[in-house]
Amino acid sequence: MTDPELQAAMQVLSVLQDPANRTDFHVFCLLVCRMVNVSTQHGLCGASRARLCLSRDHPRLGLSPLQRGYRFGKLACDLVDKHGFIAHRAKVHYAMGQIAFWTQPIASAIDFMRVTFRTAIETGDLTFACYGMFQSVTGFSCGTIRSTRCGASRRCAGLRPGS
Predict the structure, then answer these.
(1) Backbone angles phi, psi at 161, to 5 degrees
(2) Coarse DSSP helix, strand, coil percentages of the chain, rounded to the nearest 5 percent
(3) Average pLDDT, stretch 154-162?
(4) Nearest C-alpha neighbor of 110 from the set 86, 132, 85
(5) What is the arithmetic mean of pLDDT over 122-131?
């Protein structure tokens, strides 16, 4: 995608998806479909690569089996890493961690969430830093309460201003 206005529009649609997914599923579906249509007609950009992964197998969309979702997510991760779309790396790895939770060993899902946290901190995306931290510390935690608390304290220290 070469048109800067379309790239900006895709970025806006990408930012709106997370709140829409949490508040109005129909708006979320509309945003996903619009991004897929624009990407199909005008080519891919960083935001559409993130969309490849995030639309991979949304459970309420009833799309593809989990293994197909894993392949789409892996494709999105590879594209983001290959082309250096750093701004979308945390979102793609977060979605990939969600997929990996159901399709891969738990250690793989935790690794994706750690990459999410680290990349989000590096790019200043505190929302996805918190998502990655939450999932890697509590969402997938199979350890003791003490190890979970230590991990949470260590990660929270990175979120405090001035750290």
Answers:
(1) -60, 140
(2) 80, 0, 20
(3) 59
(4) 132
(5) 89
Other C-beta atoms lying within 10 Å of the C-beta of residue 85: 20
Alpha-carbon distance of 156 to 154, in angstroms, equals 6
Q: What is the pLDDT of residue 120?
A: 92
End-to-end Cα, the chain, rounded Å: 38
In this predicted structure, the answer to whether residue 56 has a pLDDT above a threshold of 50 is no
Candidates 151, 133, 148; CA nearest to 93 is: 133
pLDDT above 80: residue 105: yes
Phi, psi of 43 (to 5 degrees): 100, 175
Torsion of CA 121, 125, 131, 135, to 10 degrees: -30
The pLDDT of residue 57 is 43
Q: What average pLDDT does range 61-89 have in this prediction?
A: 77
Provide φ and ψ at 37, rounded to 5°. -65, -45
Name the residue ranges covered by the structural domains of the chain.
4-159
Question: Residue 75 CB: number of other CB atoms within 10 A?
Answer: 15
Question: Where does 4-159 sit in CATH, by number?
Answer: 1.25.40
Q: pTM for the complete prediction?
A: 0.58
